[in-house]
Amino acid sequence: MVSGLINENPTVYERKERRVRTDSTNTDEFSVEPIDQLEIFDILFFDFAIVNIHHIRDIRDPEHPYSLEQLKVLTEDSVEVDDLKSYVRVTFTPTVEHCSMATIIGLSVRVKLMRSLPPRYKIDIRVAPGSHATEAALNKQLNDKERVAAALENPNLVEMVDECLSPSFE
Amino acid sequence: MDLMEKNLELIEVQKLEGHTDRVWNAAWNPVSPILASCSGDNSVRIWEQSSLSRSWSCKTVLEETHTRTVRSCSWSPSGKLLATASFDGTTAIWEDLGDEFECISTLEGHENEVKSVSWNASGSYLATCSRDKSVWIWEVLGGNEYDCASVLNGHTQDVKMVLWHPTLDVLFSCSYDNTIKVVWWSEDDDGDYQCVQTLDESTNGHSSTVWAISFNAAGDKMVTCSDDLTLKIWGADISMMHSGEGYAPWTHLCTLSGYHDRTIFSTHWSSDDIIASGAGDDAIGLFVDSKQHDPVNGPSYNLLLKKEKAHEMDINSVQWSPSKESRLLASASDDGMVKIWQLETTP
User: Fold this and answer.
1) Keywords for this entry (chain B) (predicted)?
2) What is the DSSP string of B34-76?
3) Domain that holds residue A54
4) CATH code at A71?
């Protein structure tokens, strides 16, 4: 029985300062601001905790409550967005090459975006090329809408995803 | 009558609201002006057209039976029974008793989500398929009894849809494994269903998940659609099959690409030869045979029209009405709506 963590010693990077938007010229409270890379970056980086799960029954035991930014799972270049086309693609790098967490991370990123973006958005999630042993298979599964829908009807998976999406500890 | 020469438009006739989650599938009753839709809200809605006002309204909601998403629904050829396939692993059979529907049977056996259900032309067999990679064939016995006749394990991944041929007892299935499989009854080895053909990349097949299949009225052509963003047209010499000369293989005739830039989830071939497609780009495409007889390249199909933003989100299902009166098309979407469209010539 494996009792250790999947990733015992993750590399932790410095967290960037939260950028303040300096454009205060738009005072029209009813104007619609286009969604850009920075906004999606904020959605993903600051409200996301990563939890290492080695035993399904112990989901309440977060081992590394660092953000995905700190673990370099997501970087600035991870997000490609086109608000006019209502399209976003997020590329993430799992911390370990055959990390079984990759499915949970990918699913969590999708759920976070689905909950934060307008319903018109088309969301593609993929692992960074070369970062995972079964990259093609993983990408296919993460982008099969029917599979994702069925997975999100599984209460155990939803619980794990919600754990990942719970606010960070700092 | 050449459709390409007319000014055609897909006009929205009515928007059917009521489902509280995405609508996965819509199915027209073969004999009455009734439409069934099924949803991620675990229910099935039956919509009926009023003979007076011609408008559609929700006649009844079939709920409290499936405990998870209802993924697809299919009417029996008589129009009296409705089969519903669910992520809860079961397929329910409902009987239309006039003022209400009663669940008369529940087919169990699949290990996980059931994706699709189909009745054969005579209503004597049902087929179901699942993420468990199998296709089950059920025999319709009297007295609301259904018996499992065969379990087929040919696909190597999640099976997305099953469909019986419109005139022959030949079963087609398409899958996440990128292939389409053809199964028919063989009398060898005490008789059982066997896979007689697999349409894969090596036979000009799809390069990603195949989501749907549809036949033309004659049953000698079929269209398939895929996550690879294409529609493919296939043909077979079915007169050979009808005359008992054995199995006639399906061959690739044409690939339609560049019309959708997101997964094509559904396609349906109308009785008057218009192919409809519904995709993740929120658009409905309509295609017709170009009627250009090219002896080298075979038949080709042209885009008749593309209805952009037909819905606000992905389109999961497109179905032509069997009604001969008008060209009605139903579409079901992630936006929770079912829409009824009419293909009309504009003055």
Assistant:
1) Repeat, WD repeat
2) EEEEEETTS-EEEEEE-TTT--EEEEEEE-SS-SS-EEEEEE-
3) 37-165
4) 3.30.300.130
